[in-house]
Amino acid sequence: MLTFTIRRLILSIPTLLFISFVIFMLLQLAPGDPMAQVPLTVPPEVKEKMREALGLGQPIMVQYWKWIVQFFWIEPQVLIDHWFGTAFAEGKQRVISWQTRSPVMDIVVQRIPQTLWVVGLSYVVGILIAIPIGIYSAYRQYSVFDQSGTFITMIGFSIPPFFTGPLLIVVFSVQLGWLPSIYDTTHVVTDWSSFKIQFQQMVMPVMVLALQTTAQLSRYMRSSMLDNLSQDYVRTARAKGLKEGAVVMVHVLRNSMIPVITVIALGVPSIFGGAIITENVFKVNGIGQLLLTALFANDIPMVMTLTFIFAILIVLFNLIADVLYGVLDPRIRYD
């Protein structure tokens, strides 16, 4: 298993480099000019100097190489300097946002906690709700609970976040006045009353994202459980006199979790990308909102860095899913 993990990590390096090159070239082909938002009163020669300062006058491959060096070499040094108080990255050029004229990774680090609070919590909530629903729906196939779960999950699949979010705002914020419609990112939890405010403003964005996660995972869990409940080893375990709870929750559940683990692991990057709409609906000042703002401003360094971070998450969680296969199923070994 260790050899397989190391080999996959080594192979992921050229994969990520190729992905970064494709993303960079696509952004270079995209229309727009970073100088378009500069006031019209600025003389053309000043705009040209600004373009040169941003490195836009250099060849495309030179710009790409500079980004590679800054992202893979200089930014890790900045992180080491922050942790250990060293000065490896002092005076070196970092990835700079064209829109804010500040280091991109500094802005990303500021936004990550908000995204993790909302997106991360919604994914955990969705998993904790979906797995029990899928297990019980499979065990009680065609029951009222199973049919109700199927109906609810179909709604979760069918209704997109840009409809669910405003609908919840109209009902719970406008009509009932129970929950705030805008997420206050400056709010700090210091006591019980401030925690209550934080909880209230997180309810709607978390539920919007958790609804889709629950709808997807519960169907996968139900299907996988049904496949395993009809296997011969289940009948053998019951014939040996094992309790029904042990048969379902130990033998069947462990084998059923293998395909579900794939969906959970591969869904982590997609939930970050899917949160772009939800973060903008509820004004959550997170990574998704930052990416959308950078796209409108044609901030290529910011867009390049964020999309590449999503690519890293996809490759990383693919590896995690493969490793978990071997942990959950002893028949799977990577030699």
How many beta strands in the DSSP annotation?
0
Order of helix and strand elements from N to C terminus: HHHHHHHHHHH
Cα separation of the termini: 7 Å
Strand content range: under 5%
General shape: globular
Which consecutive residue ranges, at least 5 long each, have pLDDT under 50?
none
Query: Count the helices. How many?
Result: 11
Radius of gyration: 24 Å
Structural class computed from helices and strand pairing:
mainly alpha
The main pleated sheet reads as:
none
Helix content: over 70%
Would you kindly provide a written description of the structure presented here, covering whatever features stand out?
There is one protein chain. By secondary structure, the chain is mainly alpha-helical. It has two domains: 2-84, no CATH class; 108-228 and 255-296, no CATH class. Helix content is 75%, strand content 0%. It has helices spanning 2-29, 44-53, 60-84, 104-139, 144-158, 161-175, 192-229, 232-239, 244-281, 287-296, 300-328. The termini are close together.
Question: SSE layout and pairings?
Answer:
Elements (H helix, E strand, L loop, with lengths): L1 H28 L14 H10 L6 H25 L19 H36 L4 H15 L2 H15 L16 H38 L2 H8 L4 H38 L5 H10 L3 H29 L7
Helix pairs in contact: 1-11, 4-5, 4-7, 4-9, 5-7, 6-7, 7-9, 9-10, 9-11, 10-11
